[in-house]
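Need Purine nucleoside phosphorylase's 3D structure for a figure. Predict it.
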Amino acid sequence: MPNPYPLFRPAPNLTEFKNLIAIESTRHGGVSPAPFTSLNVGYNTPDTEENVTENRLRLYSELGIRPDQVASSHQIHGIEVLLAEAPGRYSGYDALITNKPGVFVGVSVADCTPILVYDAHNQAVAAIHAGWRGTVGGVVSAALQAMKTSFNTRPADCYAYVGTCIDETSFEVGAEVAEQFAPGFKRLDAYTDTWFVNLKSANAHQLTSFGIPPSQIGISSFSSVLNNDDYYSHRLEKGQTGRMMALIGIKS
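Structure prediction for Purine nucleoside phosphorylase:
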């Protein structure tokens, strides 16, 4: 019988590629106590390093990979892209790309949008972290351009997944934030005079603007707020929460 509380969910539109691991973790199956209950994989939280390390080990074990195969970064809500030619913990990057089999790139999230990209022709991948600042700055576009430069990635060869994040109905923002988004990605509630932003749509638009066919883009049906039993939400839990990981890589 399948585990009703899995440690991760695969990116559903990428499961056909048997040489690929592409997932986003849940909050289940870890050792962290409240408020980080329970699979907190974020080192940049008040949880103990020992708990986070054990949680990551559990996740990696479930995926059949080792900790020394993972490349990640301390994220800064920017648009810098790392060409990850080796595993390790880096700093200052919100997107990581690689074409090295056995190297898995990952980003951590708890309301921000994770985006995973697979270039099936050149066997290259990207993991991208897009909060509202990164979305406005074009971090997805920057990562795709870096893949084009580094791997000769073509849009028609790409498959992408826009992962679980805060949903449009929950992402209320001030006018100073809303004004930075194009009209198609924001909504003004006439009754409350407040703005709401759709991060999933805004980041999916960067994928299609690069030329990736919409039929090759999947979008998570989950919300970190509305499905808080399964996912962490920094906003809903007022900052006292853990982090999920979105991870992708080609098996060696």
